[in-house]
Write a structure and sequence with these properties.
The chain has one helix spanning 3-18; strands at residues 32-41, 44-53, 59-62, 65-68, 71-74, 78-81, 86-95, 106-108. 15% of the residues lie in helices and 45% in strands. It is mainly beta and 109 residues long. It is elongated. The N and C termini lie far apart (59 Å).
């Protein structure tokens, strides 16, 4: 039997053995609900983000970055966030932006 024909039979045998079988993989899921807020007190801005983990695998080595138009500040790195756990991160942003008014505060995880 030639080599090409033998390889063809092997390929058909593999396809036939797996036909109709769903692909299976053990995979975790990380799903985060985030509730952002900001506080202005005595001219100082504080960015607040509450994070709830709705997945089934711990989230590891995570941090939050808060950004105003003129600056970005990161939180410390947190080790883990277990499934169904909530963590609130508070980031001091310093003085309120100038001029006074409405400013966009962006969170990045």
């Amino acid at each position: 039997m030639n080599r090409g024909l033998a390889l063809g039979f092997c390929a058909l045998a593999l396809i036939g053995a797996t036909a109709g079988q769903p692909a299976r993989a053990a995979a975790g899921r990380i799903a985060l609900d985030m509730r952002p807020a900001s506080r202005l007190q005595n001219g100082q801005v504080e960015a607040v983000l509450s994070v709830t983990h709705r997945g089934n695998e711990p989230a590891r080595a995570w941090h939050v970055e808060a950004m105003l138009p003129d600056r970005a500040v990161s939180s410390a790195v947190h080790d883990t966030l277990q499934p169904d756990a909530t963590s609130t991160v508070r980031i001091p942003m310093g003085n309120a932006p100038d001029p006074a008014g409405l400013h966009t505060l962006v969170f990045k995880m």
